[in-house]
Design brief:
Layout lengths: L6 E3 L4 H10 L4 E4 L5 H6 L7 E4 L9 E4 L1 E5 L4 H6 L1 H6 L1 H8 L4 H6 L2 H6 L7 H6 L3 E6 L2 E6 L4 E3 L2 E2 L5 E8 L5 E9 L7 E11 L5 E9 L6 E2 L1 H7 L8 H12 L7 H21 L3
Length: 283
């Protein structure tokens, strides 16, 4: 399949990219790694008149840590997957990045592109449970938004005239364990059927002091299973708890029309497994 016709723009700064977004409002798309966008263009699902390439903008590819993890928007998923720093302190992110495609895809795909293309079961659920915030730059200047406020609907995100420049992730609390699990549909595009990210924190008495569950591909946007989180919070691990939590998580989902019942069934299975995994990883 060939790409539709477009004009390629190469800004040298974030501000210049923003000016292109404003100048050609409604006719643009930002190009980072291109693994998702170019495929969608080939299939004529999106047909921007102008592609704004971000590769020539310096200082958008980095992983830094000083109490808060900072990831530049052009950082590849492979860099996240193999980073010793992330593996040590934010292993949930490296685990999620390893699930996405093969090494070749991971070497091209960027974390910013993954989020801006609203891929619901990739990096969004783990970043949600870690309490990530996104740094956006637009015509009105710079602002920071919680990742849960970034997604506004199916394949939609907040203002299209802004550029995502950085992901900021606070450190997980002590005595925390995490897990990310995902099941793909067997299709040409290897799309995720369900993704589950889970962060579990225990106090010294074994009580769950914090529980965060992120779900992808089971609602119009990536979501938190907040009723299930509240159910688990304040409890200790006991017989039947995982099964009850899995049932509650299933009830919170609002899957798209494709494979509704199967997505619900898989959600319950993955939530149960993720809870068990996270329990075993508490440090």
């Amino acid at each position: 399949m060939s790409l539709p016709k477009f004009e390629y723009l190469e800004p040298k700064t974030v501000e210049e990219a923003c000016s292109f977004l404003s100048m050609y409002k409604g006719e643009t798309a930002l190009l980072a790694g291109g693994t998702t966008l170019l495929e969608r263009m080939k299939r004529r699902r999106v047909m921007p008149r102008y592609l704004i390439g971000l590769k020539n903008i310096s200082h958008l590819d980095y992983i830094e840590y000083n109490q808060v993890l900072r990831i530049g928007t052009l950082t590849t998923l492979r860099d996240i997957a193999v980073s010793p720093l992330i593996q040590e302190k934010f292993d949930l992110l490296s685990e999620a990045a390893r699930f996405i495609g093969g090494v070749q895809i991971q070497n091209m795909a960027t974390v910013g592109g993954n989020l801006c293309n609203v891929l619901p079961a990739d990096m969004a659920p783990p970043l949600m449970v870690l309490g990530a915030r996104l740094r956006l730059v637009g015509p009105q200047g710079e602002r920071s938004v919680a990742i849960e406020d970034f997604f506004t609907g199916p394949s939609k995100r907040v203002r299209k005239d802004e550029v995502l420049t950085e992901i900021q992730v606070p450190s997980p609390p002590p005595r925390s364990g995490s897990s990310y699990l995902r099941l793909n549909m067997r299709t040409e595009e290897d799309l995720p059927l369900v993704g589950v990210a889970l962060l579990l924190t225990q106090d010294a008495n074994g009580i769950f002091s914090e529980v965060k569950i992120g779900l992808g591909s089971v609602s119009p946007t990536p979501m938190r299973a907040k009723k299930t989180e509240e159910f688990l919070k304040g409890k200790k691990m006991e017989e039947g708890l995982l099964e009850e939590a899995a049932k509650l998580a299933v009830e919170e989902t609002r899957p798209p029309t494709a494979k509704v019942e199967y997505r619900k069934e898989v959600t319950g299975v993955l939530v149960k497994r993720a809870l068990a995994n996270a329990m075993g990883r508490i440090k």
